[in-house]
């Protein structure tokens, strides 16, 4: 049974598969950028009609390849799940940071340069997003700096108990791959049908485009995080480990909640989630140093 799990894991989440996925998604991203530019040209020539602000300006075309880069980041979240809890959480922060940066390209295509900058909603959103992206980028730097293993921690003996926990994480990670492919395909097809007025199941407004797929993705991550937290009690009863894992769940929940609001509150929840995760990790590392 264990060998079957290892084989499935290697097939879906090995280093070779990661590199292959990276090349495939990069090729799709480049192709999607070109297709988006062609569609914008066709719209501007009045040859086709698309009800979307993403086809008003060539700048907005950058939004599409970024979406595929985000899908690769989603794969990396799953890839690092069995390998490193802090890198797994860091990849979640990378995803929400890239979502904000991707939103900047849409904001740029809708900017109205005027003396009433702070009175125009889209201009205000652009201001919030550009400041937040810089802050989040720096917070990510601090988070990865804190998650860097100390020299004394690089050599760890993997006991049978910990090995069992790692196997559980591999099973969960391998199970997530097909689930997320299904969710991504469903979300993308629904949005595409709506965009081209092909009898979509539901209507997707443009205000909601940043939520597509990622609502469900972060909801799924919360479920996974809770399962891992409960399972971790079999392998450790250290208070600071439990608090760290619980804190990371709260951080993920805050990110998920950010999709339900807009404007400054949206940015506040995202930045707050990363700050909370960073503080939890800093305090956890202090515990580790004191307990040596």
Radius of gyration: 21 Å
Helix content: over 70%
Q: List low-confidence stretches.
A: 151-158, 198-207
Structural class: mainly alpha
Helical segment count:
9
User: What proportion of the residues form beta strands (DSSP E)?
Assistant: under 5%
Give the termini distance in whole angstroms.
37 Å
Largest sheet: none
How much is the average pLDDT?
82
Number of strands: 0
The secondary-structure element order is: HHHHHHHHH
Q: How many structural domains in the coordinates?
A: 1
Shape: globular
Describe this structure in words.
The chain is mainly α and 292 residues long. It has one domain (2-144, 158-290). The chain is built from 9 helices and no strands. Helix 1 packs across helix 6 (160-195), helix 2 (15-44) packs antiparallel against helix 3 (63-80) and helix 4 runs antiparallel to helix 5 (121-147). The longest helix has 36 residues, at 160-195. The radius of gyration is 21 Å and the shape is globular. Residues 151-158 and 198-207 have low confidence and may be disordered.
